[in-house]
């Protein structure tokens, strides 16, 4: 879960760590699956830093130690935490890597909600039935969603990450690209150690600082982690996932989870629907959508779970959804739309649901990052300003695409397709 667009904010599946962001900031890493994460972490060989780098790292450490002590970290806690910690070239390499090709949302969802992941989720639901029931009762968060987050973040605990949290965050802080963020997380990690919840040796996780079964960042841990087992320790790292699952429930609850309400439902849009209204931020009462002729995909009246937005993740030629409050709550865990869809869809499948009814436009190929940059430049050159060309299809680009489509009397779904790029060339 997480914070910020702190790692490259690709909209779909990058190979970075996911996690629980902390309040008020956008999640860190969009849509990484546990498998992708594991592959990324295992893909590099550890290289020893050179002596000059080590000297610089030690100088940073000395400065940071003084800072930590003024923040109330005891010298003995700091020194024990940093005992043997050195610069990790692997973390530097992973931090610098950026995916050139992003996956289409259907490919991402295929992997994220695979039959294996669904069946494992059902096995876990049975094996942990009484624990999940108790957690659901206390936090009023649906067990299937807690299971789904667990499945997405670490494949139900099987890829929790093996990087020392202190070493990983120290490397990111030293490297400097996101020093303030990394130092803030590092201070939180030291506070956790000082509290006695965990030892430095056991405090492990992804290279970017996310820890435990459901990948909490240290600041999120401090705020939301729970001791559900009642042993006095909030242990999200142990083989027993109980505390981690309760912590996830507490986090979702804190951000407004509505018990027994869906993340969204697949819908059918009426002929002539104005796709300019299909915007995640355009939340309207269900009655408004009903009046426009939006129904469920089976033609039933749209269910009412409060204000809804229309989501068209693959444009006008793929499945379309009405999304409710819980969709936004999932995005507090990881801000990517693809991630929120995957959590919701996997949860529904674990509970017995099937695939979406409408077909994805599987013949559409994904644009590379360079092609997205080209698309943004072409749109801007034609007077449809994308507010920069960063290769990330965000709200400004979608809005520019819509403007272009409207100017051509095309269906203004805002979808960045290869055929659109062809048109612009
Ligand atoms: Ca505990």
TrEMBL record:
Pfam families: PG_binding_1 (PF01471), SLT_2 (PF13406). Keywords: Signal. The keyword Signal applies. Residues 57-348 form the Transglycosylase SLT domain. The keyword Nucleotide-binding does not apply. Residues 373-424 form the Peptidoglycan binding-like domain. Residues 1-23 form the signal peptide. InterPro entries: Lysozyme-like_dom_sf, MltB-like, MltB_2, Peptidoglycan-bd-like, PGBD-like_sf, PGBDSf, SLT_2. It comes from the Bacteria. PANTHER family: LYTIC MUREIN TRANSGLYCOSYLASE, MEMBRANE-BOUND LYTIC MUREIN TRANSGLYCOSYLASE B. NCBIfam families: MltB_2 (TIGR02283). This is Murein transglycosylase. The gene is MltB.
């Amino acid at each position: 879960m997480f914070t910020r667009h702190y790692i490259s904010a690709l909209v779909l599946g990058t190979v970075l760590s996911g996690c629980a962001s902390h309040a008020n900031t956008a999640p860190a890493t969009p849509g990484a699956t546990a498998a992708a994460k594991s592959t990324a972490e295992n893909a590099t060989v550890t290289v020893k830093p050179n002596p000059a780098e080590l000297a610089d790292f030690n100088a940073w450490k000395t400065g940071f130690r003084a800072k930590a002590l003024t923040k109330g970290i005891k010298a003995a806690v700091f020194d024990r935490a940093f005992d043997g910690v050195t610069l990790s070239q692997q973390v530097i390499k992973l931090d610098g890597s950026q995916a050139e090709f992003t996956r289409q949302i259907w490919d991402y969802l295929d992997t994220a909600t695979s039959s294996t992941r669904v069946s494992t989720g059902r096995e876990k639901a049975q094996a942990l039935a009484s624990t999940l029931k108790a957690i659901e009762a206390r936090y009023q968060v649906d067990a299937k969603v807690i299971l789904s987050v667990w499945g997405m973040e670490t494949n139900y605990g099987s890829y929790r990450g093996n990087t020392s949290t202190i070493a990983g965050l120290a490397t990111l802080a030293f490297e400097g690209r996101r020093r303030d963020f990394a130092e803030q997380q590092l201070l939180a990690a030291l506070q956790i150690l000082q509290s006695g919840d965990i030892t430095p040796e056991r405090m492990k996780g992804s290279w970017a600082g996310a820890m435990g079964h459901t990948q909490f960042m240290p600041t999120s841990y401090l705020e939301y982690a729970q001791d559900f087992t009642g042993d006095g320790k909030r242990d999200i790292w142990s083989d027993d996932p109980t505390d981690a699952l309760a912590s996830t429930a507490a986090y979702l609850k804190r951000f407004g989870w509505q018990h027994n309400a869906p993340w969204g439902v697949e819908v059918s849009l009426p002929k002539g629907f104005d796709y300019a209204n299909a915007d995640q931020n355009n939340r309207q009462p269900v009655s408004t959508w009903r009046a426009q002729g939006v129904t469920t995909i089976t033609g039933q009246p749209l269910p009412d779970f409060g204000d809804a937005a229309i989501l068209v993740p693959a444009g006008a030629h793929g499945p379309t959804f009405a999304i409710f409050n819980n969709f936004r709550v999932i995005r507090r865990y990881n801000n990517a739309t693809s991630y929120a869809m995957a959590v919701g869809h996997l949860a529904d499948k674990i509970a017995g649901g099937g695939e979406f009814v409408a077909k994805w436009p599987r013949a559409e190929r994904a644009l590379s990052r360079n092609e997205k940059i080209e698309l943004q430049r072409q749109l801007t050159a034609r007077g449809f300003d994308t507010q920069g060309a960063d290769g990330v299809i965000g709200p400004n680009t979608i809005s520019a695409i819509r403007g272009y489509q409207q100017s051509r009397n095309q269906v203004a779904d805002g979808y960045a397709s290869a055929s659109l790029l062809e048109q612009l060339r």
